[in-house]
Amino acid sequence: MTGFGKRMKRDTAVLVLRDAREITELLREALDGAPATERPGLERALALVAEAGSVTDAELRARWVRQRLAVAGHEGPADSVAAIKALRQAEPGLSLLQAATYAREAATA
């Protein structure tokens, strides 16, 4: 089991969580029993959840990378050496390979 923690950490540095189906179901249930005054808001919420649920994992990771780079003050290309360095400094748990992969993904997204 030695090294298992390192491998898991390396493989799951950026975990994308998706609860869109569960949230959609809850909103649909609320909409079914909602008074007319609440229906427009619940319908809008359903549309927003559908929109958010359609974003790919790669797009979510790219957004995460761009946010980290913005906080780090990096303004150049997302896949530059400086960006990868800034990303690794912002997220010390990232390996060089992960940072380079995520940076390349952000640059193409």
Descriptive account of the structure:
The protein is mainly alpha-helical. It has two domains: 17-54, no CATH class; 57-109, no CATH class. It is built from six helices and no strands. The longest helix is centred in the middle third of the chain and has 16 residues, at 57-72. The chain is elongated. Mean pLDDT is 85; it is low at 1-12.
Number of domains: 2
Characterize the main sheet. Answer: none
User: What portion of residues is helical?
Assistant: 55-70%
Per DSSP E runs of 2 or more residues, the count of β-strands stands at 0
pLDDT averaged over residues: 85
- Structural class by helix and strand composition: mainly alpha
Termini separation comes to: 37 Å
Number of helices: 6
- Low-confidence segments, given as residue ranges, are 1-12
User: Approximately how much beta-strand content do the residues carry?
Assistant: under 5%
Short key terms for the protein model shown above:
109 residues, 6 helices, elongated, mainly alpha, 69% helix, disordered N terminus, 2 domains
Give a quick summary of the entry.
The protein is mainly alpha-helical. The chain is 69% helix and 0% strand.
Describe the SSE topology.
Layout: H1 4-11, H2 20-32, H3 39-53, H4 57-72, H5 81-90, H6 96-108
Helix pairs in contact: 2-3, 4-5, 4-6, 5-6
